[in-house]
Amino acid sequence: MEAEELLPLGFAASTFRFAGPVGDFSAAEELEGKRLATSYDGLLRGYLAERGINAKVVRLDGAVESSVRLGVADAIADVVETGNTLKAAGMEIFGEPILKSEAVLIRRTGEGGAANGTAREIDVLIRRLQGVLVARQYVLMDYDIRKELVEKAAALTPGLESPTVSPLRDSDWVAVRSMVPKKETNRIMDELYDLGARAILVSSIHACRI
């Protein structure tokens, strides 16, 4: 079945890498003639063949990091996230990543591909997913500020297009609402407070359409 990638989803990121006993290896080329344990023998064989590295691939279904200690392999190729499990087994990562991956949205192509939905249905699905992905990167910030300070405050919270500014009962003040990057939340709140903004509130965004 042929498929095409439509949208990276930004989660479940992982890296397929080589690891071996500390100090034993520094590059993939040093694996020539060695035994490599992995749960993903197809990917590993392809990688080695592309680089002309002749090594014996030993397929294991689990606990790959234990294979060296048990004498089954000289090094391993496994999916790595933090690397803590490898360190606990006396192993270290070496060489360039074999493969980097993350969750993605795909669609079947070729004969029968249309059965997966019309172009409009797929566009709607992608737009909804993008709305969630963008929402995860932003928060909604509300605050009150004196009218004469609105321009300076808007420079700190420009939003995606422009902040919303609404009048308050006290005509000297206005309420401002804007989307701001989540990772910048505390810095922006501090700078707004120093500028004179008050009642600064932050809310999560579950979904949006940009």
Percentage beta strand:
25-35%
The biggest sheet amounts to: 5 strands, mixed
Poorly predicted segments? none
What shape does the CA trace take? elongated
Helix content: 10-25%
Count of discrete alpha- or pi-helical segments spanning 4 or more residues: 5
Series of H and E elements: EEEHEEHEEHEHEEHE
Strand arrangement within the widest β-sheet reads: 4-3-5-2-6
Secondary structural class = alpha+beta
Rounded mean pLDDT is 90
Write the layout of secondary structure elements.
Elements: E1 3-8, E2 14-21, E3 35-38, H1 41-50, E4 56-59, E5 75-80, H2 84-88, E6 91-101, E7 104-108, H3 119-135, E8 138-146, H4 150-156, E9 164-167, E10 173-181, H5 185-195, E11 198-204
Parallel strand pairs: 3-4, 3-5
Antiparallel strand pairs: 1-7, 2-5, 2-6, 8-10, 8-11, 9-10
